[in-house]
Amino acid sequence: QVQLVESGGGLVLPGGSMRLSCVASGFTFGSSTMSWYRQAPGKERELVAAHYPYFAHYADSMEGRFRISRDNTKNTVYLQIHSLEPEDTAVYYCKAHTSISGSPIEYWGQGTQVTVSL
What we know:
Layout: E1 3-7, E2 10-12, E3 18-25, E4 33-39, E5 46-51, E6 56-58, E7 66-71, E8 76-81, E9 90-100, E10 103-108, E11 112-116
Parallel strand pairs: 2-11
Antiparallel strand pairs: 1-3, 3-8, 4-5, 4-9, 5-6, 7-8, 9-10, 9-11
C-alpha cells in the first residue's frame, strides 16, 4: 500500500523558516521523482519543486527561497522554505511519480497546512 505522509506545517511568522517532510512507503522511492506542490485558498494547485533521482528543479517563481532535498535511506523528501511571506500560505502536497510494472503512476499525500501570519 502506497503512503505519502506530510508533516511540518503550521503557523509561522512572516520572515520565518519552515521545513516540511514527506515520508513515503509502498513503492521504489530511490528511482521515483518526488515533488512538492501547493494550493492557496481560491487558487489552483501549483508546482513548487521536483526532485528527480539525481537533480532538482524549481518552478520559476520558487527559485531562491525554496529548497527541495531527499534522503533515500529514509524514503523522505523535504522542502525547506526561508523568508516566508503571507502569500506562501497554502496547503503543501507531496507527490510521487513512479512506475508499477512498467506503467507510470502518481500518488499524492494528504497535504500539510502552512499559514504565514502575524
